[in-house]
Amino acid sequence: MQLILISLLLLLASCSSPQRKQNADPSPEEPRKMKSKVTLQELKRQLGLERGSDQLGFQEKVFSPCSIGYSAPDETCSDKFLVIVNFRVQCRNSEGTVSTALEESDLFPIKGASLSWRLKGLDGVSRLDDHGFGQIETVSVISQKKQWLRLSNGDDFLNVRAGEINRIVTPKNWCDSKKYSQW
Model's pTM, two decimal places? Predict the structure, then answer.
């Protein structure tokens, strides 16, 4: 009789304890830990923001990092913004205000320069190509379209709204012949 009572108690105890499923769905945190971080190039492709550096202007697209495998394990799934800024920097051969319209022959690209950039909460360096084209690619937690973009060559800087940038014409002092071989 005691054996039956002990068996019955063991049976009841095993029924009341939580059972673990063998094939239980992973917790919401587990999928993010399993995904690897996506490169900016892959992210641009997935979001349809691939374009040549000569296609000037600002573009951004909001995305959920967890839905495309972009997040690191310590990040949240809050929406992020992929920000792409393509611009061209050219120098004019004069300083100060000009009273006549500039022609293409008055301008030349700053070749191979490294320009520091800063957007709200973000910064980096963009290297210009041989035609003066540069690109900023970054991921932000806020929209950067109405934020100020600061570009600097070390000695000089300019500020422009990120959503308005395309071609930049700078005065002659940006074209220091010690830094850039243009003339």
Answer: 0.70
